[in-house]
Design a protein that fits this description.
Largest sheet: 28 strands, mixed
Organism: Paracoccus nototheniae
Protein name: Pectate lyase superfamily protein domain-containing protein
Distance between the termini: 98 Å
InterPro entries: Pectin_lyas_fold (IPR012334), Pectin_lyase_fold/virulence (IPR011050)
Number of strands: 48
Number of helices: 4
Structural class: mainly beta
Oligomer: single chain
Length: 701
């Protein structure tokens, strides 16, 4: 549309050079747009510009929109008309990748469109190959490198080659900001082989895997092997950390959890400066996430369902149990001297009992203190996890002949063995974490590191538990950046549900903050059961959240060894933890090792709150502080100051031999200006600044 005179007149008037002009009614003499040169210069003000733009919009806005729309329509029509079938000058277009691969593209065409995705002719490129061996490169979308341009599709039986090709292009094209790999949306994305995403940390090159949400982007593992991973990002030599790798809005799942041992979903060595958001790890008969030397990792809204692995228990098929007082008898020979715990299925719940003494193959005596025992007959039972032994200097893990603990397919699994490794301080116990590298027999395997090198026990251990985690956060042995200490993990809304074995294993880390829920398996069996929510070696930080459901194995819900830092369970809730301890602590020989339970709401536990803790440390290193509420019995809520001193709604209570803030104190050794408990009388005492010892009137209960 041609410009009209009225608008040009407005432009000349509002944007004239001088104030005066011919016809201004004030004697001005000069044609617009210059105006009268004898008058002052006219400034440009916002009012004039506003009036001018308003006039433009009123007269031309519709015309401009029409022109743009017409141009777009014309280009679309031209592209359509210039499809491969008829045009010698247009961009060839194909509805499917298969059609494009079979087509001979004319030499003039440097661009093609396949299923809405754009490709550029490029010798040696890997995104697409058409007839005659002509190769085409992907063209980045606004989101990143789209794996569909390399052939990824829900219709494919194997998308691993397409995703791997996209990663290789990303590696070659990395800038300082890295690249995003866009995964297909709409359903199952099947992968039949391991995907390698390793890039060394120097120079840094971030890689981000992005999906459209875990309901519509399901990366599916369709192969087996405990020593494999769906996505591996780890230096095979175990020397260099990986460049950061991120994951967003993806579901990881297996095609099947029967027929073989599932690979881990993610195996990352030296994982730092990365994040995971909106990730769901689905059913697996193996570890779901394995990573080492974690630093500055952020996990938000990550869920782990039905993962991990439990080594098979002793079979109780055909055996029933009768319980009278502390005497437990079996209908057939089943007990042996290694048995430590047994779970008896009472209606409507199940209860775990500690075996205090082995009497015969058909009888044991249960421990009474701290346990709620219910008599009954014809009851079903489930033993503790299998027990193994190791000899210092050997990498052989041994049950006894006749045990059915291991199978050949276990090679590659993570294995956890308590007390078999030397701690930070000589004499301290530490969990030995390794991989199974050789199957020897149903009762024996050999263990080693990620590269297959043997890892020997530092000390003899006899009849200890054995576990495998759903989440494996480990510190590799050896120096260098690959084996650096772990720090700065923030995990918000972490959800571990119905896990088998150990929920999460972690070691040698500080500045960890985890919030969420860890829920054991509610239907334990010989072949699938929850051992403990967490096994930790020397972790500093906190966990805020809950433990749900009895673990059915193990001494307590959480097992912590070799502590040289402070770890706090803050505002903890524990549900259905019948006859369960909350924390089991090995001897902490470092003076700075503590575990603090800072407030707990415990359901269905009728014992003394002190019995929630299992430790032999003297003085105590697991401190029960804050408000303690024991649901399911008549105990009043308490404000705890350690193990034995607390305030309820009536008064302060101090128990002889139990200590304020966990410290047994001889009154004669109190420093000036401090409180303590006289361990003989149980009285609360105070030594003033002059050194005079004073007894504070209390009621001893």
């Amino acid at each position: 549309m041609e410009a009209t005179l009225p608008f040009l007149e407005d432009v000349n008037l509002f944007l004239r050079d001088h104030m005066g002009y011919t016809g201004d009614g004030q004697g001005g003499n000069g044609a617009l747009p210059v105006g009268d040169r004898s008058t002052s210069r006219k400034p440009i003000n916002t009012r004039d510009l506003r009036a001018l733009f308003a006039a433009f919009a009123e007269e031309y806005e519709g015309a401009v929109d029409d022109a743009i729309e017409a141009a777009v329509d014309a280009q679309a029509a031209a592209d359509l008309a210039a499809g491969y079938a008829g045009s010698a000058t247009g961009t060839p277009q194909f509805a499917s990748r298969a059609t494009a691969e079979a087509a001979t593209i004319p030499a003039f065409a440097n661009w093609i469109i396949v299923g809405g995705l754009v490709y550029r002719r490029s010798p040696g490129a890997t995104a697409l190959t058409t007839a005659g061996g002509v190769t085409w490169a992907h063209v980045d979308t606004t989101e990143g490198i789209d794996t569909r341009q390399f052939g990824a599709s829900m219709l494919n039986d194997d998308n691993s080659p397409a995703i791997q090709a996209a990663i290789e292009v990303a590696k070659a094209a990395f800038g300082a900001s890295g690249a995003a790999i866009i995964l297909p949306a709409g359903g199952f994305v099947m992968c039949r082989s391991q995907i390698d995403a390793y890039r060394p940390n120097s120079p840094r090159s971030d890689l981000i895997f992005k999906g459209a949400g875990h309901l519509i982007c399901r990366l599916t593992c369709g192969f087996y092997g405990a020593d494999l991973a769906l996505i591996r990002c780890r230096d095979p030599l175990g020397v260099t950390r990986s460049s950061p790798i991120w994951f967003e809005n993806v579901r990881f799942q297996h095609e099947s959890t029967t027929g073989g041992v599932n690979p881990v979903f993610l195996d990352i060595g030296g994982w730092g400066n990365s994040s995971m958001y909106g990730i769901l790890f689905s059913n697996s008969n193996n570890t779901q996430l394995r990573a080492s030397s974690i630093q500055n990792l952020r996990m938000t809204r990550c869920e782990f369902w039905y993962g991990g692995y439990a080594f098979p228990k002793k079979s109780t098929s055909g055996i029933t149990f009768s319980l009278s007082g502390t005497t437990l008898t079996a209908s057939g020979a089943i007990f042996d001297s290694r048995d430590r715990y047994i779970t008896i299925f009472h209606s409507p719940d199940r209860r775990r009992y500690r075996i205090a003494a082995y009497v015969s193959p058909t009888e044991v005596t249960l421990e009474a203190a701290g346990y709620r025992i219910t008599s009954g007959t014809g009851l079903n039972g489930l033993f503790d996890c299998p027990r193994v032994s190791m000899v210092a200097g050997s990498n052989l893990v041994n049950g006894i002949v006749g045990d059915e603990i291991f199978v050949a397919g276990d090679v590659g699994r993570t294995i956890l063995i308590p007390r078999a490794r030397e701690g930070n301080v000589a004499g301290a116990f530490r969990i030995l974490r390794a991989r199974i590298i050789e199957y020897v027999a149903p009762h024996a395997v050999r263990i080693g590191d990620e590269q297959g090198n043997p890892i020997n026990a530092d000390r003899d251990v006899t009849h200890v538990r054995v576990g495998c985690p759903a989440i494996d956060f480990y510190q590799p042995r050896g120096g260098g950046s690959y084996g650096s200490l772990q720090s700065d993990l923030t995990a918000d809304h972490l959800h571990i549900e119905h896990f088998a074995g150990v929920g999460i294993f972690a070691e040698t880390a500080d500045s960890w903050r985890i919030s969420g829920k860890i829920h054991g398996d509610t239907n334990p069996s010989r072949l699938r059961y929850s051992l403990n929510t967490m096994w930790f070696n020397n972790i500093g930080g906190e966990y805020v959240g809950g433990f749900d459901s009895t673990s059915a194995s193990g001494e307590a819900l959480a097992y912590i060894a070799d502590q040289a830092k402070a770890f706090t369970y803050r505002n903890l809730w524990a549900r259905n933890a019948i006859n369960e301890r909350i924390v089991q602590a090995e001897d902490f020989l470092s003076p700075s090792g503590y575990v603090i339970i800072d407030g707990i709401d415990c359901q269905n536990y009728a014992g003394d709150p002190r019995d929630l803790i299992s430790e032999t440390n003297v003085p105590f290193r697991v401190l029960l502080l804050g408000f303690v509420n024991m649901q399911g019995d008549s105990q009043a809520g308490e404000l705890r100051f350690g193990h034995g001193s607390y305030i309820d709604h009536r008064h302060l209570k101090v128990q002889p031999g139990r200590v304020l803030l966990g410290q047994a104190v001889d009154a004669g050794s109190l420093p000036n200006g401090s409180f303590g408990i006289n361990v003989v009388s149980g009285n609360l005492v105070f030594r003033d600044m002059a050194g005079v010892l004073r007894t504070i009137n209390t009621t001893v209960v």
